[in-house]
C-alpha cells in the first residue's frame, strides 16, 4: 500500500473559478459583494433600498440566488438596473460556476458594482468563494444575538455585519450590544452597521461603506492603468 | 447541508488522482475539516457512503481529521488552540494573534494498493 499526499483544497475547482472571476473583476474595476444571511433577514430589502438610492446612471447589477421562484429578481427589477435570478433548484448556496455562467452575457466593462444575493443560509455559503471583494453578513434583530457564536464561519469571513430591522428593537428582546460583542468575539474588529430597511434608519452609514469600497476599487483600477 | 456536494468533490478528486496510479486502486482518502469550516463530519461520512455504495468505489474508506481552531501569537510566536473565541495569547497575553487553523476543507492524502478482489475500482479493471 502506498500513501500519496494530495494537499489540495476540497473545493479547489470552485476556488479556481472564483480566482478567475476575482481577476476579471479586478481587471474591469468591478466591486463584487456577496450578501449572506438566514432566510428573511432582509437581504432583498437592503438591496431594494440600496438600488433606490443609487443614481440611475450608476453601473450596478444584481445576481440573486434562491432555491425556487423569480420573486426576488422581480422585486429588484423595479429599480431599472440589470438583475438576474439564479435558481439553484435545491442547492443551498451559490457556487463560483453559477456566477460565471450567469455573467456570461454581461460585459464586465459595463459594470462598477455587482451585488450577489446568496441563498438564505448562514452555513453553506460560507464555504464557497464567489470571487467577491467582500462578504457581507446580514443579521436581523428578530433572530438570536448569539447567531455569530452559532455560525462562526460566516461571521469570521465577512468584512461587514449589517444588523437589520432595528426599528423592531422596542418590541423584541434582542440585546444589540451582545450581538455586536458576539460578532467581534468571532471576528475581532468587525465593522458593524445598524439599519432599518423599513424606516431607512442607518442606511446612510451603509451607503458610505459602499462608497468607500467603490472608491478603493476605482483607485486600484486607476493605478493599474497608469 | 452542502456535505453532499463536498462528498462529490472528494470523490472526483480521488478519481482524478487514481488515474495517475495505473494498476493500483484507491483504498482510503484522508480529508481535513476545520472546526469552523461549517461542515458536519458525520453528515459527510453519510453522504460519502451513499454516493459510493454499489459503485466501483464502494470499498474506499474516508478518514476525516477534524482540525481545531488555532491561532499564532505575532509577538512571541506561541501557537495555541482557541477556546470560546478567546484569541489572546495565553503565554504573553498579546492581542496580536493570527488564525492558523480551523477553516480547513482539504484533501490530505490518498492510499492506493495493488488491485485485488476487495479494492475500489477493481470492477473497472481487466
Contiguous runs where pLDDT drops below 50 for at least 5 residues of chain A: none
Number of strands of chain B: 6
Helix content of chain A: 25-40%
CATH fold-level assignment of the domain at 3-68 and 102-115 in chain B: hypothetical protein PF0899 fold
Please identify the top-level CATH class of the domain at 3-68 and 102-115 in chain B. Answer: Alpha Beta
Rounded Rg of chain B? 19 Å
Strand sequence of the main sheet of chain B, in spatial order?
A: 2-1-6
Q: Please, what is the average pLDDT of chain A?
A: 95
Largest sheet of chain A: 7 strands, parallel
User: What distance lies between the first and last C-alpha atoms of chain B, to the nearest angstrom?
Assistant: 38 Å
Spell out the helices and strands of chain A N to C. Answer: EHEHEHEHEEHHEHEH
Structural class of chain B: alpha+beta
Calculate the terminal CA-CA distance of chain A, rounded to whole Å.
Answer: 56 Å
CATH architecture level-2 label of chain A: 3-Layer(aba) Sandwich
Going across the major beta sheet of chain A, what is the strand order? Answer: 4-3-5-2-6-7-8
Tally of individual helices of chain B: 2
Element order, helices and strands of chain B?
Answer: HEHEEEEE
- Mean pLDDT of chain B equals 90
Structural class of chain A: alpha/beta
- Total DSSP E strands of chain A: 8
Quick one: CATH class of chain A? Alpha Beta
Short description:
The complex is a heterodimer of chains A (226) and B (126). Chain A is α/β, with parallel strands linked by helices and 226 residues long. In chain A, 38% of the residues lie in helices and 21% in strands.
Overall description:
- The complex is a heterodimer of chains A (226) and B (126).
- With 226 residues, chain A is an alpha/beta fold.
- Chain A has a single domain, classed as Rossmann fold.
- In chain A, 38% of the residues lie in helices and 21% in strands.
- In chain A, strands 4-3-5-2-6-7-8 form a 7-stranded parallel beta sheet, sandwiched between helices.
- In chain A, helix 3 (71-77) links the parallel strand 3 (60-66) and strand 4 (83-87).
- The mean pLDDT of chain A is 95.
- Chain B is of the alpha+beta class and 126 residues long.
- Chain B has a domain at 3-68 and 102-115: hypothetical protein PF0899 fold.
- Helix content of chain B is 22%, strand content 32%.
- In chain B, helix 1 (3-18) packs across helix 2.
- The longest helix of chain B is centred in the N-terminal third of the chain and has 16 residues, at 3-18.
- Classes of the chains: A alpha/beta (226), B alpha+beta (126).
- Chains A and B meet through strand 1, helix 1 and helix 6 of A and helix 1, strand 1 and strand 6 of B.
Amino acid at each position: 500500500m502506498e500513501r500519496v499526499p494530495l494537499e489540495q483544497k476540497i473545493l479547489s475547482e470552485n476556488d479556481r473559478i472564483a480566482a478567475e472571476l476575482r481577476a476579471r473583476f479586478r481587471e474591469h474595476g468591478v466591486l463584487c459583494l456577496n450578501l449572506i444571511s438566514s432566510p428573511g433577514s432582509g437581504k432583498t430589502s437592503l438591496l431594494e433600498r440600496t438600488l433606490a438610492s443609487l443614481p440611475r446612471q450608476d453601473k450596478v447589477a444584481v445576481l440573486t440566488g434562491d432555491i425556487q421562484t423569480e420573486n426576488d429578481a422581480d422585486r429588484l427589477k423595479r429599480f431599472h438596473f440589470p438583475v438576474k435570478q439564479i435558481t439553484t433548484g435545491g442547492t443551498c448556496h451559490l457556487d463560483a460556476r453559477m456566477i460565471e455562467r450567469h455573467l456570461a452575457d454581461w460585459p464586465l466593462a459595463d459594470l462598477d458594482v455587482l451585488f450577489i444575493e446568496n441563498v438564505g443560509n448562514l452555513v453553506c455559503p460560507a464555504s464557497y468563494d464567489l470571487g467577491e471583494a467582500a462578504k457581507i453578513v446580514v443579521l436581523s434583530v428578530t433572530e438570536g444575538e448569539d447567531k455569530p457564536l452559532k455560525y462562526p464561519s460566516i461571521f469570521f469571513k465577512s468584512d461587514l455585519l449589517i444588523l437589520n430591522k432595528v426599528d423592531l428593537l422596542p418590541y423584541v428582546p434582542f440585546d444589540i450590544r451582545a450581538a455586536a460583542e458576539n460578532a467581534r468575539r468571532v471576528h475581532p474588529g468587525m465593522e458593524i452597521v445598524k439599519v432599518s430597511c423599513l424606516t431607512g434608519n442607518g442606511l446612510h452609514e451603509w451607503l458610505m461603506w459602499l462608497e468607500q469600497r467603490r472608491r478603493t476599487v476605482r483607485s486600484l483600477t486607476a493605478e493599474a492603468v497608469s | 447541508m452542502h456535505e453532499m456536494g463536498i462528498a462529490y468533490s472528494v470523490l472526483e478528486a480521488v478519481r482524478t488522482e487514481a488515474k495517475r496510479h495505473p494498476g493500483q486502486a484507491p483504498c482510503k482518502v484522508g480529508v481535513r475539516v476545520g472546526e469552523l469550516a461549517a461542515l458536519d463530519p458525520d453528515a459527510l461520512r453519510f453522504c460519502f457512503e451513499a454516493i459510493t455504495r454499489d459503485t466501483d468505489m464502494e470499498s474506499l474508506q474516508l478518514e476525516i481529521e477534524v482540525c481545531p481552531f488555532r491561532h499564532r501569537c505575532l509577538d512571541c510566536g506561541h501557537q495555541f488552540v482557541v477556546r470560546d473565541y478567546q484569541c489572546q495569547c495565553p503565554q504573553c497575553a498579546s492581542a496580536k494573534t493570527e488564525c492558523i487553523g480551523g477553516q480547513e476543507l482539504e484533501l490530505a492524502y490518498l492510499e492506493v494498493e495493488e488491485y485485488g478482489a476487495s479494492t475500489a475500482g477493481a470492477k473497472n479493471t481487466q
